Amino acid sequence: MRQRSGNAMQQDGKKAFIVTLKGTTPHTNAPEFLTNQMIKKFRQYDQTWARKNKKTFWIDHVNLVSCQQPLVPLSQQETMKKSGTALNDPITDETMVNDAAFSVVFVVNIGTPPADNTEDDSSGTSRTN
């Protein structure tokens, strides 16, 4: 059974979160770069991290659902350039005329110890805490 609340969901007793990153960038490889960096960061919070930090949860698995960078149509870019439309980044004040939008979506599965307080370690054996 799948239950969902906000960006959290639960399926077959396992908890997960949907993480969506959206933005604009002049860099053509931004979605791939963000995907690689985020997956690397998520993987740091594994069972070893949980044991070391005395946590009762960890990131069990990360699935990349979507990685898109739809390009702004050339006609729209040309129209903005010709009209002198000010399209600047609100933080850096750099022009965004040549930027492309991107969207990256992950499902982050959260691991928790079983109810009987045994947990499966990476060797495939169970141990009791």
Describe this structure in words.
It is a single chain. With 129 residues, the protein is α+β, with helices and mostly antiparallel strands. It contains 3 helices and 7 strands, in the order E-E-E-H-H-E-H-E-E-E. It has helices at residues 30-43, 47-52, 74-83; strands at residues 2-5, 8-11, 14-25, 58-68, 100-111, 118-120, 126-128. Strands 1-2-3-5-4 form a 5-stranded antiparallel β-sheet. It has a two-stranded antiparallel sheet with strand order 6-7. A hairpin with a 2-residue loop joins strand 1 (2-5) and strand 2 (8-11). It starts with a strand and ends with a strand.
Low-confidence stretches are 1-6, 123-129
Query: What is the number of beta strands?
Result: 7
What is the average of the pLDDT values? Answer: 74
The number of helical runs is 3
Helix content: 10-25%
Oligomer: single chain
SSE string, helix = H, strand = E?
EEEHHEHEEE
Distance between the termini: 29 Å
Secondary-structure-based class equals: alpha+beta
Largest β sheet strand count, sense and barrel closure: 5 strands, antiparallel
Major β-sheet strand ordering: 1-2-3-5-4
> What percent strand?
35-45%
